[in-house]
Amino acid sequence: MDRRQYSASAMRNREPILDVFKKYLPESGTVLEIASGSGEHAVYFAPQFPNLNWQATNFDDTQLDSVIDWIAHLPSGNLLPPLKLDATSTVWPIESTSFPATPITAIFNVNMIHISPWRVCEGLMAGAGRTLEKGGRLFIYGPFKVEGQHTAPTNEDFDAWLKANDTEFGIRDQRTVIAEAEKNGLVHVKAISMPANNFLQIFDRI
Known about the structure:
Blueprint: H1 8-24, E1 29-34, H2 40-45, E2 52-58, H3 61-73, E3 83-84, E4 104-110, H4 118-131, E5 132-142, E6 144-145, H5 153-165, E7 172-173, H6 174-182, E8 186-194, E9 198-205
Parallel strand pairs: 1-2, 1-4, 2-3, 4-5, 6-7
Antiparallel strand pairs: 5-9, 8-9
C-alpha cells in the first residue's frame, strides 16, 4: 500500500526555498527537519546537498508513514530514517547518545507555528537552542505579521479562518518569534520574502 501524501504547497515553494538554501545552508553536518509533513521536501532537498545528512521528523503517525514511503520511492544516500518527534518535548530523539548523525548544523521547519498552539513555537526554539551547534542555522518558513500588521489581505483572511477553527492558532508576529528565539541563544539573521506572502526567517545559534 502506498501511504505517500501530496502537498501542493510543497511543490510550489520548494524551488524558492532551494534558492535560499544554496546561499545559507551549512556545507556539512545534519539538517533536522521538524514537522516534515508529507516528506516531499525531504526527498527533494536531500539529493541537492549530498554533503549534508537530512533527518526528517513528524509527530503525526500518518505523516510519518508518508515520509517513510516517499524515501522508499525516492531514496538518497544522505536521507536518514525518519523519526517521531514532538517539538514541545524537553528532550528530542536526536539528543540521544545513540543518534549517529551529529552535529546538527541546521534545522528546517515549514508551515507549523501558525497551525499549532504557541507552545509549539516555544518548543521549537528551545529545541533549536539545545541541539544546534554554535553557528548552526534555523530556517522557519511560513506567513508572518510584520510590526503587528498582516502583509496581505489574503493572510488576514487566513488568520481569521485559523482562529475560527482553533483559538490557539494564528499567524505569528515576526518580532514575537524573534524574541522567543533570542531567549534560546538564537539571533535573527534575515527575513526573506517568499512567494504567496510568506517569509523564510533565518536565525543563527550563537
